[in-house]
Amino acid sequence: MASQGLTYEGCNFFRQRLILATLSGKRVKIRNIRSRDDNPGLRDFEASFIRLLDKITNGSQIEINQTGTVLFYQPGLLYGGSVEHECNTQRSVGYYLEALLMLAPFMKNSLKAVLKGVTNDQNDPSVDLLKATAVPLMKKFGIDGVGVEIKVTKRGMAPGGGGEVLFTCPVRRTIRPVQISDPGKIKRIRGTAYSVRVSPQMANRIVDSARSILNKFIPDIYIYTDHMKGANSGKSPGFGLTLIAETLNGTFLAAEMVSPPQGQTPMLPEDLGKACAKQLLEEVYRGGCVDSNNQSLALLYMMLGQQDVSKIMLGPLSPYTIEFLRHIRDFFQIMFKIETQAPVEDEERKGGEKVLMTCVGSGYTNISKTTK
Amino acid sequence: EEESEDEEEEEQVKGKVPADSGHCSEEEDEEEEDDDDEEEEEGEGESGDEEEDEDSEMEEETSNAEVPQKKAKGPKVTTQQQEEEEEEEEELSYDTEGALRWKQDLAQKAAEAFLRRQQATPNLRKLVYGIVAVEDG
């Protein structure tokens, strides 16, 4: 029986493997998870991720050996519904939310998830970033309406956490194929500077420094300040900035920076604002029709679309995306056509190399969705 | 080639020429001749050949210096030196010709450059999926 499933080794790309296994219905076995480490086996955040998967599916079978170095996962049906999950504070809520974004449209019932934990940390894309980039992206694939929402009800910084995020998503029977090949020019820049358990002035200082760089390029900039206090401010102090560049064709490119967690070398809000603004410029240089954080999400939706050609222009592929492409081939036997497009030198539109990704959707239909 | 060298060595022994000096000069003769052939075919790397020639001349001088000490200046050696000088003159003419020969096979050179460039651009599909993708096209 084990021969039917896929076998992997090591702890890398753990989420990808479990997500694709769930969508394809294939069982997966992961061996040698940190088997040579001083602290072998699955980490707490990975265990927490498995528990979340267990909550949103029905009939999943998960076996982990004594040391946690071997995991066997037989996926069940994606059930959805109301879920509340206490996310481990080693990783931010974004780690879990990214997975939910990939799975949510293919569930039996529309998902309403409350995720508690760290909303912003330095490793994972923050909830604010996903809210600003992933939601518009999903709309392009036909996952839209009032049902799609990511809301930060409480903000919790690393390491203490204490934040809370509400995520709702409707279900779809099929995903619409897309052809997006022109990102267009940058129309406006928006952003959110947030601060919790520090002086509210911090957010203003971030805004000023970020504007000092971005004002040279475009006049239409507005950066909101978001200061949460009291019960909504989580357990740890911190501040950060998320910047979003919107293009004429509705592409959202984002960059973010978060202050180091308490105890590490502190960072001036001015430095943070400038660094974040430069990161946004880098992201704009990389360009493409999808933010580099959401490349794999877009590719997944393309691949699971109706049996029609989908095309999308991306910036340089991230290492995570490259591995995701390989896993898609393993689980769904779908290979993308990858064409490099030299940057257009005329009309001042320069930038990094672009990649045109083309694929024919697998014609995946959500059979668990109830027809009304 | 080794066999031919061996034969020559034997000849030298028969002609009572000391093995050292005679062998040395003869080897260089061969090399120079080879170079000439290559030049005729390719018409490239003139500067390199010139350097080699200089080296060989230097060595000839040393070999000439050695010869009288050993009192064995066979007639064969002198003829070889004359030949060498003639060859050098010919080489000079080759050099000047080669400088103008960049126009030859321009189409072929362009084709090679094109292929080289195409191979240099990374095939992303191959990088991502490995060898399998190439077979699929």
Automatic annotation (TrEMBL), chain A:
CDD domains: RNA_Cyclase_Class_I (cd00875). Residues 182-284 form the RNA 3'-terminal phosphate cyclase insert domain. Keywords: Nucleus, Ribosome biogenesis. Pfam families: RTC, RTC_insert. PROSITE patterns: RTC. The keyword GTP-binding does not apply. It is found in: Nucleus, Nucleolus. GO terms for cellular component: nucleolus. Belongs to the RNA 3'-terminal cyclase family. Type 2 subfamily. Part of the small subunit (SSU) processome, composed of more than 70 proteins and the RNA chaperone small nucleolar RNA (snoRNA) U3. Interacts with BMS1. As part of the small subunit (SSU) processome, it plays a role in 40S-ribosomal-subunit biogenesis in the early pre-rRNA processing steps at sites A0, A1 and A2 that are required for proper maturation of the 18S RNA. Activates BMS1 by promoting GDP/GTP exchange. Does not have cyclase activity. NCBIfam families: 18S_RNA_Rcl1p. This is RNA 3'-terminal phosphate cyclase-like protein. It comes from Clupea harengus.
